[in-house]
Write a structure and sequence with these properties.
four-stranded mixed sheet; elongated; 25% helix; alpha+beta
Length: 332
């Protein structure tokens, strides 16, 4: 994924105030606007400037970007350089915007922006949420807010109550971005899946003129784990078996992602990659739970002692003409 150095794009220092960011954006917008610019690549440059302003002009997005950017800058990355963010790099940040913040909306933004912010848009700030009529502030519901959170797969199986810390930001007296976190107790429903939204009513932005607060939408991400992969509510788990178990069949005890242990039968003649289906043992969801698939891997023991070497030699001798590089049935 290509890193975007938004400070470099706008030509401002990382310690720039929000007013400095605004001035830099306006100057570049006048320079690159396709309707007036004589630059050969004005449309692309204007898109980059708009994206940089979308992030640096929003204190919450800017605070999140600074945390991620610090890792890239420490490695000497500049705009356009390939970066590999660590797992969970885009979780736990809170932004203004509606429930469609991650997955809806319009805009021609970079892969870097989409990976970090989805299609989140600036809420416009407090000023955009106030309305006046004859000097009196009108009622207006508070903004909805959203964030990504990471959960363990076992939380999806059983449900849970978790203390979730969300990282936000505010402007200090000098117009600089300062971090501001909050911790919420969140009830995780059983059967939650990747991409699902958990709605916390009244936990969004405050209302005005006595109106209700907005809602907070938490988009679920399941924490990556090398032991399994998740597809909707189906879960696939690797099951290592010995060569003789694969050839002769047998039973194996398996620890499942829900914390239980089950005994499964490995059919005789199984090969690497064969999938055994345990119906209804995926992520639960009422009467339509997912399935658990066990994908077989052949674990080949080493030949260290003379007895072990002799055993492998005897096995090889019992299969004269066997060529593992020829697929059965097609002769090639």
């Amino acid at each position: 994924m290509q890193f975007k150095d938004y400070y470099q794009i706008l030509g401002v220092d990382k310690a720039a105030s929000q007013d400095d960011v605004k001035k830099a954006y306006r100057k570049l917008a006048r320079k690159y606007h396709p309707d007036v610019s004589k630059e050969a690549d004005a449309a692309r440059l204007m898109a980059e400037v708009n994206e940089a302003n979308e992030v640096l002009g929003d204190p919450e997005k800017r605070a999140a970007y600074d945390v991620v950017g610090a890792q890239a800058w420490a490695a000497g990355a500049r705009s356009g350089d390939d970066v590999r963010p660590p797992p969970g790099w885009n979780s736990g940040y809170e932004y203004s915007g509606g429930a469609r913040g991650f997955g809806g909306g319009e805009g021609d933004f970079s892969e870097f922006f989409e990976q970090m912010f989805g299609h989140a848009r600036s809420g416009g700030g407090a000023g955009a949420r106030r309305a006046h009529a004859g000097g009196a502030q009108a009622q207006m519901r508070g903004e909805d807010r959203h964030a990504r959170i990471e959960l363990d797969l076992i939380d999806a199986y059983h449900g849970a109550e978790r203390a979730i810390t969300l990282r936000g930001a505010r402007l200090d007296g000098q117009g600089h971005v300062a971090p501001e976190d909050r911790t919420l107790q969140v009830k995780i429903p059983q059967g939650v899946k990747e991409g699902q939204m958990i709605r916390l009513a009244g936990q969004g932005g405050p209302g005005f003129g006595g109106a209700a607060a907005g809602d907070l939408f938490l988009e679920v991400r399941l924490r990556p784990d090398p032991r399994w992969r998740v597809d909707g509510r189906d879960v696939t788990l690797k099951l290592r078996v010995a060569p003789w178990e694969a050839a002769l069949g047998g039973s194996a005890r398996v620890g499942t992602p829900d914390g239980k242990t089950v005994e499964v039968t490995v059919p005789a003649g199984s090969g690497a990659g064969r999938r055994l289906r345990l119906k209804g043992r995926g992520i639960p969801f009422g009467a339509a739970p997912g399935d658990l698939y066990l994908e077989l891997e052949i674990a080949v023991p080493g030949a260290i002692t003379p007895e072990q070497k002799a055993a492998w030699q005897a096995l090889a001798a019992s299969y004269p003409g066997f060529d593992p590089r020829i697929k059965p049935g097609n002769g090639s």
